[in-house]
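Hi Y.,

Following your request, here is the sequence exactly as I used it, all 280 residues.
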Amino acid sequence: MRNTTKITTAVLAAGALTLGLTACGSDKGTGSGAADTKAPLTVAATPTPQGEILTYVKDNLAKKAGLELEVKEFTDYVTPNTAVQQGEVDANYFQHQPYLDDFNKKNGTEIVAVSGATVHLEPLGVYSKGVKKLADLGKGATIALPNDTTNEARALKLLEANGVLKLKKGAGYDATPKDIAANPRNLKFKELEAAQLPRSLGDVDAAVINGNYALEAGLSPAEDAIAAESPKGNPYGNFLAVKKGNEDDPRVRKLAKLLTSPEVKKFIEKKYAGSVVAAF
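Below is the corresponding structure, written out as tokens. Let me know if you'd prefer a different format.
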């Protein structure tokens, strides 16, 4: 039976940021070696596919490996990191390296990827209720984009790769619409929180949606996207992350091994049919 705590995080995220990034009376996850390695390993994750993958590990692989695993689900991209930084959870699994680098820089956090624990890629896709291909977007059409720094740049690069626009030379992982050098169709861009993008489809001509939120909304990146990222050479693989200093916690190493096991790869391939791709 799934033992997962679902948490509505709009208030939690704000509260976590207001409280700051200091530990809340807990030794767990301090990076000082004080974590109780005999306690259950608590991992924060977004529900789909990360929470589902972790639940598969919990239900099918963890006990045999001697690992007691607890999963806490969050629906935003902020709280899983603040929870790790504050020691409220031991690890998280929801993000890629460009996002983590940007988050650490902006928030003064010390969260690191666990070596050898990059698990999967969720191809970013463009979705539309009105057109079947990007070339059919009319002049002045509105495209919704994720408003967090790295995923917005990722969305713009996807549009550029499909000939919709051209970015300025050297535009990197922090590109915004201000970095567009050529926009021949005079497209307009609406920046929204990533989780809101599927709900925006009725209000815009197209939206660039993260794979996990597309899946939660019943959209298939493999079948419904009118354009999608290629997994080849893609830097946006999702991985297990901890507060710096906790990378070698034996529980973390066990989970990293399980998440990159043949069993998990088979689970990803069977359950998501190309909408989520194993990255190991």
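DSSP finds nine helices and 14 strands in the chain.

Thanks again,
Q.
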